[in-house]
Amino acid sequence: MNKLSLLDQFHIWRRKIRWNRQYKKGRWEYLKNNVEAPRYAKILESIKQDATAQPSVLDLGCGEGVLRLRLENETIGYFLGVDFSKVSIKTATKYNFKNSDFQVADLHYYKPPQEFDVIVFNEAFYYINDNVRAKVLNRILGKLKHGGILINSIYKEGVGCWEYFDIPELEQLDFSKVTSKKESTYWKVGVYKKM
Ligand SMILES: C[S@@+](CC[C@H](N)C(=O)[O-])C[C@H]1O[C@@H](n2cnc3c(N)ncnc32)[C@H](O)[C@@H]1O
Fold it and tell me: Rounded CA gap, 195 and 186, in Å?
């Protein structure tokens, strides 16, 4: 299947309401703490190592802008964060980051407004309905520059996600397990280059 049924759309809408409620209650504040730090560090390291200097970065499912919080101003040319939670985007916008914009949009329908050097799914890809994962990834890849870098971080094993990145358009540069100080917490981070 390649499209969303009315029921799928209803569930996505309900999940959006739930995310907004959770952000209002501060349920995701913990993403800013040290237990989560290693996965952001891995993403920053990959950007530094594999992307062009001062890249334009698109952060899909950016939440409250925690990745941007950890990026030094001088390391990026431009940053765009996108999330369907208007509550998280309001928080991200309040930081007034330099050279950065934040936008409320649902990844199921989102078409980036320009091409980027780096596109990041940071704990967001698995929220895309599996009927349309390939289609969404294909649409997003259309706005990644040739030679640009795609980074995908997924909590634990990411069953039903990684196979979408095993496509001819992408060359895998790295695939790492990133472990937090809290031993039961780990992520897998894949880094890909668009051919
Ligand atoms: C676990 S949080 C990760 C937030 C951020 N990437 C980080 O790691 O700091 C997942 C984020 O994905 C967003 N999200 C989930 N489904 C989405 C969708 N269909 N469109 C846009 N954002 C979505 C949620 O609102 C939430 O902010």
Answer: 29
Q: Is 39 in the pocket of ligand 1 (CB under 6 A)?
A: no
pTM: 0.97
Give all strands of the β-sheet with 170-179 in edge-to-edge order: 100-104, 78-83, 56-60, 116-122, 144-155, 186-194, 170-179
pLDDT tens digit string along 177-194? 999 877 788 999 999 999
123 lines ligand 1 (CB under 6 A): yes
For tokens 């981070």, what's the residue?
189
Question: Domain extents for the chain?
Answer: 6-194
Beta strands in 48-182 (DSSP E): 56-60, 78-83, 100-104, 116-122, 144-155, 170-179
What atom in ligand 1 is closest to the CA of residue 12?
Answer: 19
CATH number of 6-194: 3.40.50.150
**pLDDT for position 13:** 97
